Each structure stands twice: as structure tokens, then as C-alpha cells.
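Quick question, first post here. What does this chain look like in 3D?
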Amino acid sequence: MHNMATTNRTAAHSSPKSRLLKRGWPGRLVWRAVIFLLYVFLLAPVLIVVIMSFDTQSYMAFPPQGFTLDWYARLTENAAFINGFRVSLIVAACACALATIIGVPAALALTRHRFRGHGAVSSLFLAPLMIPTVVLGLALLLTLSPWGLTGSYPGLVLAHLAITTPYVVRTTAMGLMTADLACEEAARILGANGWTTFRRVTVPLALPGILAGAVIAFIISFDEAVISLFVVGPSATTLPVEIYKYVEYRTDPQIAALSVVLIAISLVFVIVIERIIGLGRALR
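> Answer (accepted):
Ran it through. C-alpha cells below.
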């Protein structure tokens, strides 16, 4: 154990960051420059989209030639975007609710019980995350078409349910695994039955993970484009699909303005997850 601890300390001190910081202010300056360039690389595309959304030109170009809010005003007049937003909102809300209803009991069974086929069931819930979305979308199309569910709200919800449930299962399971089992045991000793223990002790302990999973499920469903392309129809087309259709023929800053609005919505949800459970813990 002593040798292992010594090895870990040696590895930590030999990391690039440690070696740079040991060199005093030049090392710290280099490290901060590396971090700054990394942030610029990650955020530059987003910042460019934000800037172009205020451009006065009728096509997307950088740098912009002027400043206007007309493209944001036109979003309120675009019937396709408004209808797509409404469809995406309804589908995401339904998929989020159903994924939570399915995912919470599944996570409870996987973390609190050991049964035959436990590993297979656990892998089944995580399988959609490992399958390419194109393959999954085609499989869902072939499955839903015979039932007449393509191009309908139920079909979209079922398709999105396949990719949102794993996130709820994972975050809820994380919350249950980090919860103190002594509280549940104390409730049983004091005479609470299984349902009361679950409702008044287990759920409050796992609530941060449940809420984080629900929020992530909503975001994933709302932003899903590839799978939606396979199962949408004239009466039910999501916003990402409407965006895809729009950019096929037009490249004006209106699409940049819509992207900024979606980025702002996503940031709100990220802040919610961070406040509820912490973004790092939610994505582990």
C-alpha cells in the first residue's frame, strides 16, 4: 500500500501541469495560455454564430456588415419553426415523463437487488447509447411503420424514449448508490413498509439524480435530429428536422438567431442540472 501511494504521488507530481507550475510564473503563464486557447477553440464557433445572428446581410457571412434584431423578430413569424418548437416541446415533455416513470423503478431494481440476468438487464438499458443513431433510427422506423406510428406523436415519443431512458436510469442509479442505506434500514426497523420507505426515504435521497436525469432526458429529446428524421411526418415534425429542411435551401442569419435561442435554452437547463446535482456528477 505504501509503495502504491508513493507511485500515485510520483505520477501526480510528474503530470504536465505540475511540471509547468514548478517552474514559477513562466510555467503558470504557459498553463493559463493553454487553458485560454482551449476555451477559444471550444467557444469560437458559438461566438461566431451569436455575432452572425445580428448581421444585416441576407446571407450568413463573417465578419458582419451591421447590427440588427430583425432576424430574431422574424422567428416569431416563421410558422414552420413555431410549429416545430411546439412539437419538440410536447414530445420532449412526454418522453421525459415516461423515461422517468420507467427509469426510476429500473434503477432501483438494478441498485438494490441482485437477480439472474442482472448484467443483461443493465446492458439493455445502456445499449441505445452504444448503437449509432442512424442504425437506431432505421430500426425504429422498421418497428413503428407496421403499427402506423411514424409521423405521429406516439411514434416520436416512443422513439425518443429509447434514447432518454438510459440517462434517467444512470443518474438515478448514481443517486441511489451514493445514498445512505442506514436511513432506509432505520425506516424499516421503525415499522415502515416497503412502499412508505420508498416514498418517504428512498425517493428524497435519490431526488437529485432523478431530477438531473429528467432534465437531461428533456434536453436529449428536444435536440434529437437523426432519429427524428426517420419517424417524423407532415403532421408531427420536430424543430431540429425543420432546421434541417430550412438550411437545405436558405442560409440567412435567421437560422443563426434560432441557434442562439436554443443555446440559451440549453444553458438554462445546464444551470438547472448544476444547481440540482452538479454537472460533473450528473454526467459520470
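Residues 1-13 have pLDDT under 50 and may be disordered.
The chain has 14 helices and no strands.
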